[in-house]
Amino acid sequence: MSAKSLLQLKKISKVFSRGTVDEVKALNGISLDVKAEDYITVIGSNGAGKTTMLNVIGGVFPPERGGRVIVDGTDIAGLSEYKHAAYVGRVYQDPNIGTAAKMTIEENLAMAVLRGKSRGLRVACDKQRREEVREALAPLKLGLEGRLSALVGTLSSGQRQAVALVMATISRPALLLLDEHSANLDPRTAQIVLGLTEMIVKREKITTLMVTHNMELALRYGNRLIMMHEGRIVVDLNHEQRTGLTINDLITAFERASGSKFNEDELLLRG
Fold first, then answer.
1. Distance between CA 36 and CA 7 in Å, rounded?
2. d(CA 192, CA 140)
């Protein structure tokens, strides 16, 4: 029995600066069916539409008229970004985005628990919530559960990104979006964050889309891989199809599917 659809994108297009000389068609009629517990890596060159797709899913801006974003049976395309947060958790490339530097670890995570919910004026941090925060941080094995009163701005980039990961998943959203979340970290720290990501995704059984420029990472992580080009999905490989593939195999698949040569800009995919 096949897994049910958790996310469906239907005829998603996005045009910026419409009707001007700067008009850009960032997404061109994308349709995508994501099964529950899929962990999809998304690759493509600059301008391929990767981040724009995440922005539409996350409610940063709506798709063009007629486009639908269906999460667990509910079309959320018309909802505000704030209301999307009840369905979607997100970690950005910059560790400084998504966390508040002048708030403590505990305060950041307490606010994340309430994301997408009506908060009211009551204090977010109480004894029960503090224990919930500790339990969420302990499996990271970074000692952060013993530093709840530390300001997030005092943490290293890797520690801050780890906090951002927990913040994105602590309220158990239906979907996790990772926007090149290891790209700004040094190689060793990036590996730690990617390992923590895999642990959290497996533990929470959370459906995940991870955008990366690194083809090696795209082949190593997750159970499905899609390649984007000029606002379209041109390659979509399931676990069996991508098993044993090399970077050169992916380049060949891209050229065959897109009808375009793997040019200098797209060499960023190796990187």
1. 8
2. 10
What DSSP letter does each residue of 233-253 carry, written as one string? EEEEE-HHHHTT--HHHHHHH
Asked if residue 262 lies in contact with residue 44, where contact means CB atoms within 8 angstroms, the answer is: no
Q: Integer distance in angstroms from the first to the last C-alpha of the chain?
A: 38
Residues 6+ apart with CB under 8 A from 238: 223, 224
DSSP 128: H
- Per residue in 107-151, pLDDT (tens digit) is 999 888 877 555 543 445 567 778 888 888 988 888 999 999 999
Whole-model pTM: value is 0.90
Q: What is the spatial distance between Cα 207 and Cα 38, in angstroms, rounded to a whole number? A: 5
Q: Which two tokens stand for residue 253?
A: 């698949």
Are the C-beta atoms of residues 199 and 138 closer than 8 Å to each other? no
Q: In this predicted structure, which of 25-29, 107-111, 117-121, 209-213 has the lowest mean pLDDT?
A: 117-121
